[in-house]
Write a structure and sequence with these properties.
The chain is an all-alpha fold and about 100 residues long. It has a domain of about 45 residues. Helices cover about 80% and strands about 0% of the residues. The protein contains 4 helices and no strands. The termini are far apart. About 5% of the residues are buried.
């Protein structure tokens, strides 16, 4: 049977305690990581819906600006035949410009 000295036992004990402390630190870091607030599926869906609405508004503004350009391009017959849709889009663009949302 091999002979083990007290000094070897003390070093082994210190190594084991060091390893246990490292495991405790790793466990704490893992628990902290797992408790970080991540967006829920609902929050992700809400963000996607808001982005889609923003894209829709941008599309409406683009249509409105195109209508404004066509309204002011010198074609008299187009001035006379302005549809309600173009009129509504015109005021959407005016409102956006007033609110500072479109530049």
């Amino acid at each position: 049977m091999p002979v083990v000295t007290v000094e070897q036992i003390v070093r082994f004990r210190e190594a084991v305690f060091t390893y246990i402390k490292q495991l405790e630190r790793d466990l704490k870091l893992a628990q902290e990581h797992d408790t970080q607030p991540y967006p829920t599926a609902w929050a992700y869906e809400q963000a996607c819906a808001a982005l889609a609405a923003s894209k829709d508004r941008a599309s409406n503004y683009e249509e409105a600006l195109e209508s404004i350009v066509h309204l002011h391009d010198g074609h008299t017959e187009h001035h006379i035949n302005v549809s309600k849709h173009s009129y509504d889009l015109y005021w959407i663009a005016v409102k956006a410009l007033q609110d500072g949302r479109a530049t």
